[in-house]
Amino acid sequence: MDFEYLLQLILNGLFVGSFYGLVALGYSMVYGIIKLLNFAHGDIYMLGAFSGYTLLTIGAGVIGGQASIAVLVVIMLIAMVLTGTVGLILERVAYRPLRGAPRLSVLITAVGASFALEYGIAVSFGPNPRVYPVRLGNEAFTIFGARLTYAQLAMMLIAVALMIGLDQAVRRTRSGRAMRAISQDPKACLLMGINVDSVITRTFFIGSALAGAAGVMSGAYYGKIDFLMGFIIGLKAFTAAVIGGIGNLRGAVLGAIVLGLLESFGTAWLGSEWRDVFAFGFLILFLTVRPTGLLGERVTERV
Amino acid sequence: MSIDDGSRPERPSNSSANRSRPDAADASGFVNAVDDRGDTKVALAGSGLAPGKASTVNPLSRLISHPLFGLVVVVLAIALPFINSSAYTIRISTDALIFVMLAVGLNIVVGYCGLLDLGYAAFFAIGAYTAGVLTTTFGWPVIATIPFVVVAAVIGGVLIGGPTLRLRSDYLAIVTLGFGEIVRITANNLDFTGGPNGVFGIPDFGDFGLRADIATYWVVTVVVGLAVLASARLGRGRLGRAWRFVREDEDAAEAMGIHTYQVKFAAYVTGAIFGGLAGVLFAVHQTAISPPSFNFLYSALILMAVVLGGMGSTPGVVVGAIVIALLPELLRGAENWRYLVFGVLLIVVMIFRPQGIWPHRVGEKPAKARRKRVVEDEPEVIP
Fold it and tell me: Could you tell me the fold of the domain covering A3-289?
């Protein structure tokens, strides 16, 4: 295996990993705070892609066929607000009434929410895949013989910027501190006068907005979206979160990069039809060997 | 001391602040104990075991939990070919019966033991493919494949259940989801499973001198009937009580000397065997199988039958499965709307009626003493 090919595989892995990372962050944040596996999170990503599609279709006359990165960023920001709001509503309607209910009920509700979002889109947009009205430019540059398009580079930079922004927000700001506090001990937070409900709402908003951003970017990059596109990526994002240590934000990003690289090499080795099997097989292996993840905290619960 | 009642959401004495509390991760001591118990308890999702619920059992649920009801259903199922023997009726009835078997099998995992399996179709696929490949490639009779189907299903259950049942129940849910995809994609990619075309030309059990589809129908009826009976008996026996105990409160069960890992494992593997056997029936009935039949949607539909019918209640689950299986025949052309409604229904049922649409009382009646004790303990519970 020559060096250029290796570098190309690494770049591909990092690119895919940055998508996984954005989705995995939301998964991990929600899990860290209320220990809820939000199955609908992948569908929020899908919703992001569809809101981007709708916005672009409406604004297609203004933009023209070729989207600049700047336009895309604006669309992405609007879509982020939209998906964030959906996440917030989801939490309010489906998850909050069940806070404190048995875990099984909450999981089943999450499956229901995922179903409702998927088929809600299938009903309103039709079950057939949609093609994004704009395409990103295909110009590329080469580093040491490996090829990377400018669009890919821009998306990776956007993803990194969002991740750093989130990391700083969680570590530096007041509400970030509240989030970390709640993930440690919600009851003590309640006693200390933190408005737990509003922090949870905010967490859902931020997590869903990040997934929405990933959705818009993947829609613009791959060009084709359909109502089931969030299913696999939701699973992958969970895998990434588990690899990194669920509940740990930096871990989620690390896990996403690891998963992206693994998939990239696994695809080169086994062929692309085994990509998903490889990723999920790795999830099972990882849970067997190291369920706490690379940077993880405690997973098993003891009374 | 029933501290496990501390976080039951319907309790009026709990303030909203108490209700809105999410579970603690690293809280310490007593507080943590109260929290964790509240979460591992699935009593609300179960049957009328919650005190004071039994009186709300409606006439419909009393009807379906009546012993005669089961007998009437069995007689109707056996007599169906005499009432209406059109090929269409027999076909959709066979489908519905196989779906009943799947729902009853999943009920052992989800309803009895409280483990969420989102990839149940994987075992269905394993059973169908094992039977399909052995009969077509090697020319075995269907009956001879059954031991191998059971072995294959058990291996699948051990592979997935082994590592994940030791972890929190959430992990099982997502790993089974991944497993469902693995099995489907693997079947799609391998050569001996026929790739995307699947396996076709699977023989039936023999026609016993009858019309072929009716013979298959009767075989399916008998097998499914036995499966339903077996699952109901299992749920009532010693193991079934252990399952329910684990579902209600895993820590208490462990403290009482139940090996929770083994018990959960037993539930998972039993569910796998049920799924595998249903797969054999499916393969024989369809005569051709292909990977898209075993997607996540199918797993979710089985789960929906269990949830709507009432987790842990065999009659409820049977009725739920028949409804879910026959509904598409009535509502043709509205596929996506149907799934949208199902999704919303899952949320609504979990919030307002976690015991299922037709609640059913299982075995033990809520004793008066128990109810009293819960009330007495209440002041202690509020932290």
Answer: ABC transporter involved in vitamin B12 uptake, BtuC (1.10.3470)
